[in-house]
Amino acid sequence: MEAEQILAGLDPDQRAVAEATRGPVCVLAGAGTGKTRAITHRIAYAVLTGVIAPQRVLAVTFTTRAAGELRGRLRQLGAPGVQARTFHSAALKQLSYFWPKVIGGEPPTLIESKFGLVAEAARVCRLSLGRTELRDAAAEIEWAKVTQTRPEDYPASAAKAGRTPPADASDLARIYEAYEELRRERNLLDFEGMLELTAAMLTEHQEVANQVRDQYRYFVVDEFQDVNPLQKLLLDVWLGDRDEICVVGDPNQTIYSFTGASPAYLLRFTVEHPDAKVVKLVRDYRSTPQVVHLANGVLAQARGEARKHRLELVAQRPGGPEPTFHEYADEVAEAEAVAKRARALIEEGVPAREIAVLFRINAQSEPYEQAFADAGVPYVVKGAERFFERAEVRQAVVLLRGAARSADDGEPLVRSVRDVLAAAGLTDRPPEGRGAARERWESLAALAQLAEDVAADRPGAGLREFVTEIEERANAQHAPALEGVTLATLHTAKGLEWDAVFLAGLVEGTLPIIYAEKSPEQIEEERRLLYVGVTRAREHLALSWALARSPGGRKGRRRSRFLDGLAPQSSGPPRVDRSKRRPVSSGPQPCRVCGRPLTAAIERKLGRCESCPADYDEDLLARMKDWRVAASKEQKVPAYVVFTDATLQAIAERAPVSEAELAAIPGVGSVKLERYGSAVLALCRGETPQA
């Protein structure tokens, strides 16, 4: 392929990326704007114009699937020698190569999961944690390691970051320390340690750094908004004092801050590299104008810092149906309606694998699994067992390899594959019902569908090429799409797209999730989750919520605040009028959301159950916390002496307009009312308190 051919077909902004082959480059790419196309064409153009040799390029991304896609596109563009890897894959390769030369001895064994070692560490500390708590403890240790937090510093760092550990922070620190001791004793290495050790090796051994920097002189980093401090440290060591780096990301799709990822590196790239070229990609080629309009509407309501960095997408596709909004009495009715609509779409010609149901947490999957099974609609739960590790897939690959050795290159690929898969159990029609037999059939059918896709893309491909395709996909864990509706969380859906998307369970307490109420920043990340969900849809988009969890239950739920101004008025319970004081009752104080009697002190202070969704002005709470910090410094007392977090939350939720309303909030009292009342009421009015 000629260099000029690389630029053909790119829009002006994509072409600007491709032609920016030198120096630091920052690409701010909105959802569906062709960022992978832009960066692969940039690499290929640089290679074909002689700017850089392909073996000197390292393209870094976050998943093996994305790395495999980059390699595939670069091969097609005439740059097959480019290394496209994940951070972990690149680090492991370097560590394995240099270990015998600069460290010596038995190399450590890489552990895929921390769970078993964390469980053992908890037992060593004589702490009893359930399976869920152990999983959360492992996640906390991962967060601590990527943010370079030592065990003894964990309690303070976790408190500062607003973390919610599954055990007391000091106990979690003990588990973390015991985990590290066990890991070192057994010569084990986790993924975070692998990055840290690679960075240390390059820092401490100049000859290693020189060799790596001579090998890789040209860097491209995808999904840069998801980089964590440890990955940034390794990237800086790779780069040294050079500036041949192109980063690509979208601050509007920052949804992994709970793992330590930070969009700050993307947003401050031009501070670190003042001469960087910045290109924005906003032309959306994925979604219809109707879907794009809703996506822009979601971000238009962003608050605080997030509002400054939003990208306004411009739709490029023809028009389609308007997104729909549906309210249901309960979750069962919601799931049944979604399954019914999905079945109708399939009957209209939309393939089942081009339909997805997305929700906030894994626990929401169950009613949809039941509803789709009852409706006879095939479905796949994303995040379940890896496709290429399934017994029937491994058996089929063995049979395909054997057949490829004696294959006739002139035989049609699809027929050859189906003949082999028939021996493994593939039939023309799926077995009835669900269960192991149906799942086995769907796995084999996915391989048959992949053969059809390969034959369509490469008409001359034979069985040998197909086996190579499978092996490359297995290495990258790039599974073929199963012929079923995808059920997935919003987090696992990032980077994917479907013709039709159902966003389900959009209620307060779930989206935003209840524990996000701790800070305005967390609320904004939840808003971005909804944005990610909306932008997964190409054409059909349905958003729904249920007023009760179970049939016959109290309809006390409220639709997600993120839909305000975007969806028709809900018939659910209205938002609380915080300007009206609740009448005094002689009985137990009821929750103002669900009506349950409140017994815990913190619940009585908040006026609601801790698990019930809150409705308050996030900006007001943030302003009050800033004011509290200033007041505590002036009076030389801890912040909680001024007001506790629970009291500030209660004030933000009720937004009192008079001293009487403020005094009625538990935790205020006459002394604090006299000392702080005027300042708090001024904040509630949106004013700045007098000094």
Automatic annotation (TrEMBL):
InterPro entries: DExx_box_DNA_helicase_dom_sf, DNA_helicase_UvrD-like_C, DNA_helicase_UvrD/REP, HRDC-like_sf, HRDC_dom, HRDC_dom_sf, P-loop_NTPase, UvrD-like_ATP-bd
Limits of the UvrD-like helicase C-terminal domain: 289-539
MF terms in GO: helicase activity
PROSITE patterns cross-referenced by the UniProt entry: HRDC, UVRD_HELICASE_ATP_BIND, UVRD_HELICASE_CTER
Catalytic activity: Couples ATP hydrolysis with the unwinding of duplex DNA by translocating in the 3'-5' direction; ATP + H2O = ADP + phosphate + H(+)
EC number: 5.6.2.4
Top-level taxon of origin: Bacteria
Keyword entries, A-Z: ATP-binding, Helicase, Hydrolase, Isomerase, Nucleotide-binding
Pfam family, one: UvrD_C
Chain positions recorded as ATP binding sites: 29-36
Region (Disordered): 550-590
Residues annotated as domain UvrD-like helicase ATP-binding: 8-288
Family in the record: Belongs to the helicase family. UvrD subfamily.
Protein name: DNA 3'-5' helicase
Species: Actinoallomurus liliacearum
Source species taxonomy: Bacteria, Bacillati, Actinomycetota, Actinomycetes, Streptosporangiales
